[in-house]
Amino acid sequence: MALRRPRRLRVKPIAGFSVNRLIPNILTLLALCAGMTAIRLALLGRFEPAVASVIVAGVLDGIDGRIARLLKGTSTFGAELDSLSDFVSFGVAPATLLYVWTMDGLHGIGWALALLFTVCSALRLARFNTQLGSDLPSYATNFFTGVPAPAGAGLVMLPMIVYFATGADVFRSPILNGVVLALVAALMVSRVPTYSFKSFRIRREFVLPMLLLLAAMAAFLTTEPWITLLIVGGLYIGSIPFSIRSYGRLRRASAPPIFPNLFS
Hints:
Layout: H1 19-43, H2 47-70, H3 76-101, H4 108-132, E1 143-145, H5 149-156, H6 158-166, H7 174-189, E2 193-195, H8 207-223, H9 225-254
Antiparallel strand pairs: 1-2
Helix pairs in contact: 1-2, 1-3, 2-3, 2-5, 3-4, 3-5, 4-7, 5-7, 6-9, 8-9
């Protein structure tokens, strides 16, 4: 008489999202919490930790999308959640921070400029969302249209960062900060092409130097955070003319010839 093998119990997978798909959304929520924390710290007059909270939100925003693509956890829900988090962390939080720090010295004008920045941030994010499902030309895939909201938040806080690094009272002037607010708001809703580092690839021979550079930047962030952030902001501003030139060159190269060769 042949012995029967015992049947193996088959456990059916539980329907729902895997933990891996939740990780990007968790990071997005952490970025949102960092932005809200920045607002609270600003209202308490703790401006340096408030700026640091916005920077932390920017770091989390920079990695959540990449992790989502790596774990194949991208979704429409995640994209909408990321956009709402960006509006709070990089639209509302910097404007509130600057108004409490110095812009209230201009009274109604200061509040109007803070509102202008927040409104332009919302318009920038709305335009970005409408471009997600559209087919962009090949030369435009590596560029943003206008300054993205996280970069705009960093640029608009540069006078604060300079003040923290140097202590010079001129950088706390509400007029200077109002001009910076207006300029950055205009850049966010402009058609200026800026580099998108989402598809940035590093050649194999440059991987080790890039890791060493990132390690050095992390070390300087712990010892001289404000000077390091100033250097990063200056490098980003310096990249804008190069992005405009690169975008124009790629656009001209992809354009059809005005006088095609009729005898080919």
